[in-house]
């Protein structure tokens, strides 16, 4: 009888540990998401500065597009870089002294950016309103990292299916 009670208590304790671990992970993800908004804003402003407001409007498709502008971010949300188009910043070498890329295994957030409709129907308002659909976890590492890896795709990672990711929507305004 004592062994039965002990095993019952151990199962209950292990169940609580699992819930606690999941809560801690959710808290870490929430903290990263809080930083992600600023990281997305910085990357979109960097892109706008390189192509101008008109070029940015051409680059970011209207809402509902099947091909949104794609960004990726690391787990703490502080680094976000463009991951599509010609010479995407996220795919730069990891040791690039000017703008280092983000390794596949560190691409925790996927951010899909589309343009929101302008309130007056024109794009002449001096800003562009965008919606950023953030989903996570985007990619998860497979195995240990390689020492001295410099390529963004040097270490294997597994893309998490879209249905298994959490989602948050951020609305931002980009000004010149």
For the record, give the distance between the C-alpha atoms at the N and C termini, rounded to a whole number: 73 Å
List the domain count as a whole number: 1
Helix count equals 1
Helix and strand content put the structural class at alpha+beta
Low-confidence stretches: none
The total count of strands amounts to 7
Mind telling me the C-alpha Rg? 20 Å
Mean pLDDT: 85
Determine the strand fraction and express it as a percent band. Answer: 15-25%
Helicity range: 25-40%
Describe the protein.
- The model has no long low-confidence stretch (mean pLDDT 85).
- The termini are far apart.
- Helix content is 33%, strand content 22%.
- The chain is globular and about 75 Å long.
- The strands form 2 sheets. A 5-stranded antiparallel sheet has the order 2-1-3-4-7. A two-stranded antiparallel sheet has the order 5-6.
- The protein has one domain (35-174).
- The chain has 1 helix and 7 strands, in the order αβββββββ.
- By secondary structure, it is α+β, with helices and mostly antiparallel strands.
Spell out the key features of this protein.
two-stranded antiparallel sheet; about 180 residues; alpha+beta; five-stranded antiparallel sheet
Fold blueprint:
Layout lengths: L1 H58 L9 E5 L6 E3 L26 E7 L12 E9 L2 E3 L15 E3 L6 E9 L2
Antiparallel strand pairs: 1-2, 1-3, 3-4, 4-7, 5-6
Q: How would you briefly describe this protein structure?
A:
The protein is α+β, with helices and mostly antiparallel strands.
